[in-house]
């Protein structure tokens, strides 16, 4: 498995003024002959500390009402607390003050995605890139949207640019791995997920995503290792428990498979991978 030692010069996805990083993970429906389905998993920070920070930032804005950066910073705090409407308002105000702010456009694009306004998000990511063609985060944001919309070629092109601009970005490699995985290029996807893990070994999603590609290439023991690593970071991820069950099932370790499926079902009773796995095991089909 890839070393757990983090790199010292890691490039942040969105920079100091950016929206909270979006967690991405592949989500595959497991059944023979069925198409793969992938979803974007995005979570907000709803801690009281964020709300306290918003109050402090509001005081800064009251003293500096024409500071575009202050609105971007407070908008990011709103987004982290799940207040996307307020976040969009702050990013829009920042753009009004500074129409050349790539950070404001990029962050508003991310907030638009959270509220399902994908066309507006795509326009904002493209505007951020037009303002600053070297802004890697905007390429990543646009690529994630393109992948979700099925434009895998466009997503791959954007992520190749992002990796050239920010070669230490774990998020860029992870996102490109998801595109390659969806294209069915699992060997290439495994390489990208490994690069993401090498750059940031303390996030669960790349381990879980690589585990799916390892299952797809019949590397079940390695997949189990990756799901163990993912669960060590986030033990509440039902999908990781479920896919670990698949890997155990494929190696005929019935007891471990059943335990993993059971844990997945306890976390998410509607988890289709766990339900299908338990059904197969109950019917004696392996």
Q: How many alpha or pi helices?
A: 14
Quick one: biggest sheet? none
Low-confidence stretches: 1-44
CATH class of the largest domain: Mainly Alpha
**What would you call the shape?**
elongated
Full CATH superfamily name of the largest domain:
Tetratricopeptide repeat domain
Instruction: Specify the helix fraction band.
Output: 55-70%
Helix-strand pattern: HHHHHHHHHHHHHH
What do you see in this structure?
The chain folds into three domains: 51-118, Tetratricopeptide repeat domain (Serine Threonine Protein Phosphatase 5, Tetratricopeptide repeat, Alpha Horseshoe), CATH 1.25.40.10; 134-192, Alpha Horseshoe (Serine Threonine Protein Phosphatase 5, Tetratricopeptide repeat), CATH 1.25.40.10; 202-285, Serine Threonine Protein Phosphatase 5, Tetratricopeptide repeat. It is an all-alpha fold. The protein starts with 47 loop residues before the first helix and ends with a helix. The chain is built from 14 helices and no strands. 47% of the residues are buried.
Topology:
Blueprint: H1 48-63, H2 68-80, H3 84-97, H4 102-114, H5 118-131, H6 136-148, H7 152-165, H8 170-182, H9 186-199, H10 204-216, H11 220-233, H12 238-250, H13 254-267, H14 272-282
Helix pairs in contact: 1-2, 2-3, 2-4, 3-4, 4-5, 4-6, 5-6, 6-7, 6-8, 7-8, 8-9, 8-10, 9-10, 10-11, 10-12, 11-12, 12-13, 13-14
Key traits:
14 helices, 3 domains, 286 residues, mainly alpha, Serine Threonine Protein Phosphatase 5, Tetratricopeptide repeat, single chain
């Amino acid at each position: 498995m890839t070393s757990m030692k983090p790199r010292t010069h890691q490039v942040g996805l969105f920079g100091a003024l950016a929206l909270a990083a979006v967690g991405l993970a592949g989500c595959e429906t497991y059944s023979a002959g069925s198409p793969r389905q992938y979803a974007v998993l995005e979570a907000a920070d709803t801690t009281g500390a964020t709300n306290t920070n918003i109050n402090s930032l509001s005081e800064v804005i009251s003293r500096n009402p024409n500071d575009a950066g202050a609105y971007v910073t407070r908008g990011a705090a709103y987004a982290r607390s799940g207040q996307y409407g307020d976040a969009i308002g702050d990013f829009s105000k920042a753009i009004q003050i500074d129409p050349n702010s790539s950070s404001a456009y990029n962050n508003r694009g991310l907030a638009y995605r959270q509220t399902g306004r994908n066309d507006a998000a795509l326009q904002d990511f493209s505007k951020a890139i037009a303002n600053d063609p070297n802004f890697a985060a905007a390429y990543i944001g646009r690529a994630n949207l393109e992948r979700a919309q099925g434009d895998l070629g466009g997503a791959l092109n954007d992520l190749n640019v992002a990796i050239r601009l920010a070669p230490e970005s774990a998020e860029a490699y992870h996102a490109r791995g998801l595109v390659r995985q969806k294209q069915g290029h699992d060997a290439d996807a495994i390489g990208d997920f490994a690069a993401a893990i090498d750059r940031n070994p303390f996030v669960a999603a790349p381990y879980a995503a690589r585990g799916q590609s390892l299952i797809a290439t019949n590397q079940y023991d390695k997949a189990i290792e990756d799901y163990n690593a993912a669960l060590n970071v986030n033990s509440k991820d039902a999908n990781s428990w479920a896919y670990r069950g698949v890997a155990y099932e494929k190696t005929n370790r019935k007891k471990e498979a059943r335990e993993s499926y059971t844990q997945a079902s306890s976390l998410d009773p509607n988890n289709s991978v766990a339900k299908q796995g338990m059904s197969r095991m109950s019917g004696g089909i392996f």
